[in-house]
From TrEMBL:
SUPFAM superfamilies, alphabetized: NAD(P)-binding Rossmann-fold domains
Record's keyword terms, sorted: NAD
Classification via InterPro entries: NAD(P)-bd_dom_sf
Protein name in the entry: Nucleoside-diphosphate-sugar epimerase
PANTHER family: EPIMERASE-RELATED
Source species: Yoonia sediminilitoris
Length: 286
């Protein structure tokens, strides 16, 4: 039987996984909300489905693996809202189901370490919605669910260089503010390793080894580019949108031992410095 991945919300991380699976002769069906994106998926070897809209029953019937990247909204998880019963009655059909969550489910730990056993105490509406979505997926009997809590994602097309070059990057300073990050290529490697070694019920933090203050990342990017380091701005007095300010509501360092010890993942980019150097080298090679 052909391995078939049905990917709901086939976005940045899912596309990176596809680049690993397609050379292994996987069939990949990916949903997108935009008809404009369908040709791009098709050109990459993905079978696009415009969803919501398309009849997903044939794709569900064909799927051996599910990946859910679609974020919850005010009505909850959009995939379960539309297809809960259809997925439930096929739970035993799937060899692996992956749900992409966020380390935001842990809430604020004032710069201290968290791991997969840390109680979930989100402090933002986004984090609360993710906790609810994780629970809803986990409540489906017999579903071989794996939860991946992703730290801040960066990679090709998603790095600080554009803003640094444009002079719009900001170094917002909030004492003891620490974030964890992950390169999209390492997300893909973790997902592929889990698919190869399923462990239903497992939860994995996906991040690098080097949690760091956000201002350090901007400064390093500027130094790599040979451009001035943006001036420091105090968080308390900085002019920021409510959305931008909300990203500073939580501070924590995220442990990633499980992806290394259980899945045997050797991170390509174990810290933001190696990741940013690689992104800049890719630009130079393009």
């Amino acid at each position: 039987m052909t391995n078939t991945l049905l990917s709901f919300g086939h976005g940045y991380s899912a596309r990176a996984l596809s680049r690993i699976l397609l050379p292994q002769d996987w069939r990949i069906i990916g949903t997108t909300r935009s008809e404009d994106r369908a040709p791009r998926l098709m050109n990459a070897g993905i079978e696009p489905r415009i969803w919501p809209g398309a009849d997903m029953i044939p794709a569900l019937d064909a799927a051996t693996h599910l990946l859910i990247s679609a974020a919850p909204d005010a009505a909850g998880d959009p995939v379960l809202a539309a297809l809960h019963d259809e997925i439930s009655k096929r739970a035993g059909q799937f060899a692996w189901v992956g749900y992409l969550s966020t380390t935001g489910v842990y809430g604020d730990h004032q710069g201290q370490w968290v791991d997969e056993q840390t109680p979930l105490t989100p402090s933002t509406k986004r984090g609360m919605a993710r906790v609810d979505a994780e629970a809803a997926w986990g409540a489906i009997p017999g579903l071989p669910l794996h939860i991946f809590r992703l730290a801040g994602i960066y990679g090709p097309g998603r790095g600080p260089f554009a803003k640094v070059r444009a002079g719009t990057a900001r170094r917002i300073i909030k004492p003891n503010q620490i974030f964890s990050r992950t390169h999209v290529a390492d997300i893909a490697r973790v997902l592929a390793a889990s698919i190869a070694r399923p462990n239903p019920g497992a939860v994995y933090n996906v991040c690098d080894n080097d949690p760091a203050p956000p201002e350090d990342v901007i400064a390093y990017a500027a130094n790599l580019l040979g451009l001035p380091v943006p001036a420091a701005e105090d968080f308390e007095t900085a002019d920021m949108t409510p959305m931008a300010r909300s990203f500073y509501a939580e501070s924590k360092k995220v442990r990633n031992d499980r992806i290394k010890d259980e899945l045997g993942v050797d991170l390509l980019f174990p810290d933001y410095k190696s990741g940013l150097r690689a992104l800049l080298a890719q630009e130079d090679d393009a």
